[in-house]
Amino acid sequence: MAEPASDLFGIWRTLMQQWETQANAALTGLTGKEEFSREMNRSMAVTLRMQAAFNEAVDKALTTFNLPSKDDLARVSDRIGVIEMKLDALLAAAAAPPRAGGEPADGPPPRVRRTRRPPGKAPAE
Amino acid sequence: MTAPADPAPIDRLRQGVERAVQRNIKGWEYLSSPGKAGGVSKRELLVKRGTMNLFHYEPIVEEIYRTPLLMVMATSNPSYVFDLLPGQSLVAYLLERGHDIYVLEWSKPSREENRLRFEDYVLDFIPASIAAVQRHSGEQNVSIAGYCMGGLLSLLYASLHPTGPLSNLICFTTPFNFSKFGAWNVWSDPKYFDVDQFVDTVGQFPPEMFVAAVDMLRPVGRVTGAVQLWDNLWNDDFVKTKRALDKWSADTLPLPGELFRQAAKEIIIANKLYEGTLTIGGRPIDVGAIKVPFLHLVAEHDHIVPYEVARELVGRVGSTDKEEVMLKGGHVSLIAGAGAVKRMWPKLDEWLAPRAV
Hints:
The complex is a heterodimer. By secondary structure, chain A is mainly alpha-helical. Among the domains of chain A are: 34-64; 68-95. Chain A is 65% helix and 0% strand. By secondary structure, chain B is α/β, with parallel strands linked by helices. Chain B has a single domain, classed as Rossmann fold, CATH 3.40.50. In chain B, 43% of the residues lie in helices and 15% in strands. In chain B, strands 1-2-4-3-5-6-9-10 form an eight-stranded mixed β-sheet, sandwiched between helices. In chain B, α3 (118-137) packs across α4 (149-160) and α6 runs antiparallel to α10 (257-269). The longest helix of chain B is centred in the N-terminal third of the chain and has 25 residues, at 8-32. The interface between A and B is large, with 54 and 52 residues.
């Protein structure tokens, strides 16, 4: 059924949806073209070459001044992260109380029973 | 006697004014408070190894199904989309219905992890997670549900481990025939896009680039999203969900460079998965080798993984018990949001429950 003429919000929403569909279709028609891909990738390639050249220059300068690069610091940071994780795991294992009955410490909570059946189905004998 | 005037226009006008007032009040709240991070259910971190994180969600009923479910998240986003908000949590929904839930998610890869390839995910991280689930649950068999790229990883794992311990495979909107990827195919055309130059320079595939590429698939999506938000500012549930999903989208992760190189060259450009020529760790991938019950849930309006890309998967999987279900919604609204609560979640529970005993 058509929207009543008095429902301005309803009419506005319908128009918005139509505009969205049409605008998306028109713009993706452009961005999905080979020419767009060629120009986008060409400009990205230029940016990447500039970035690579800049990175190399900065690395050389830092090496000259005997300073660590961002990569060096990131590597150290990663190693510290790994050590922290291992420490956390060791501390958690040391703090966890052993479960009764020899069950492994990472075993399921004992109150849970794995016997559930889908609704409407009789339990298997 | 004259007929009473039609009250509907007056009521609609009153409703319009009330909502306009609410928009102004709530608009200030919106602008002056941060969006909340997702994650509402109680969970425990079982395994953390670099980018890999395996969580177990605490059961909330005393009797659960025998077979645990391992949900594998896409490598591009955090897993809290499965557990978004109170009343909007797929995890909470499944816990309430007696499923035992484990989630494998990925944190931002370190620079050292830029070398990770599909082999690491399919032959190391997923098997290690399944082993941890087996130890933790005490059960031998495990069901897997993978979302998007997580579905692809699950599919590759299942192809290489047809004899178990997998008992059910569920894919959410998982790409298969990459030659139908539309604009992605044009943008990644090797005539214009040099994958090696890109990865060798940037190291990781930057999240901003992924978000921009997704935005380009719906160029006016941000504008209409903002208008839709303004229109629904009076509606607390809509605003909460929208903010949570916007934050989730902003939390997009970088991809390890080698994983992106392999995905771009072998899976997207050469379409080797679909062509049946993909190898992982030297072992051929044949989805026909998958014999376990299989469910593929796809979204009617998915613009990221269009139906044409996902359509042929169910036909090629070797299972006899297999089903594809198309539901209303988009790539994200298939799994989260008001539509998912009504459509996908009940379907998932209905399919999985009899196969999880």
